[in-house]
Please model this.
Amino acid sequence: MGEDAEPTYAAMFNIDHVVSDVATGSCWVAGVTPDRAHVLGDDLHFDHRPIICDLEMPQP
Model:
């Protein structure tokens, strides 16, 4: 998350994003975040990586 986020594309760039101006929580990137496996298997690679988030929305 932020400028210090682990790059998700070719270990050089971040092209996958989750954007919100109201949600709070945490996210991890499958196959990139340490101790988090690929969701579709280690041999399958795409330009984009799944970002899995546990987010909370403020109550109105």
